[in-house]
Amino acid sequence: MNIVPSRIHDQVSRVDRNYSLAIGIAAGLTAIWSLYRVFWLFYAAATFSTVGWSPVSLVVPLVLWGVIGVTSGLVAVVFLQRYAKEP
């Protein structure tokens, strides 16, 4: 079963294996970095709430880094699967 839609799969399969490895690694690092940012956003929200500030202002960065993380994670999976496939 293929989780990637066929139109995206056709586009990704046109990319060279070496480039797909580089794109997959870069996207994976971006996903890890956004996970790190989300962790520190929760830490900042907990810290701000102890001094009386409202952590509601951190909702926008949380949503932004969450979307970036999920998107880059999916891109990493797709391109690394392309790399793992035999030429």
Keywords:
transmembrane; mainly alpha; 87 residues; 77% helix
Question: Would you mind describing this structure in some detail?
Answer:
The protein has 87 residues and is mainly α. The chain has one domain (24-84). The protein has helices spanning 6-12, 17-50, 59-84. α2 (17-50) runs antiparallel to α3 (59-84). The protein is elongated and about 60 Å long. The model has no long low-confidence stretch (mean pLDDT 89). The chain crosses the membrane at residues 21-46, 58-80. Keywords: Membrane, Transmembrane, Transmembrane helix.
Structural class: mainly alpha
Helix content: over 70%
Low-pLDDT sequence parts: none
Tally the helices: 3
How many DSSP-defined strands?
0
- Give the termini separation: 20 Å
Strand content: under 5%
Number of domains: 1
Residue-averaged pLDDT:
89
Q: Mind summarizing the main beta sheet? A: none
Report the C-alpha radius of gyration, rounded. Answer: 17 Å
The H/E string reads HHH
Describe how the helices and strands are arranged.
Layout: H1 6-12, H2 17-50, H3 59-84
Helix pairs in contact: 2-3
Transmembrane segments: 21-46, 58-80
Keywords: Membrane, Transmembrane, Transmembrane helix
Q: What can be said about this structure in brief?
A:
The chain is mainly α and 87 residues long. It has 3 helices and no strands.
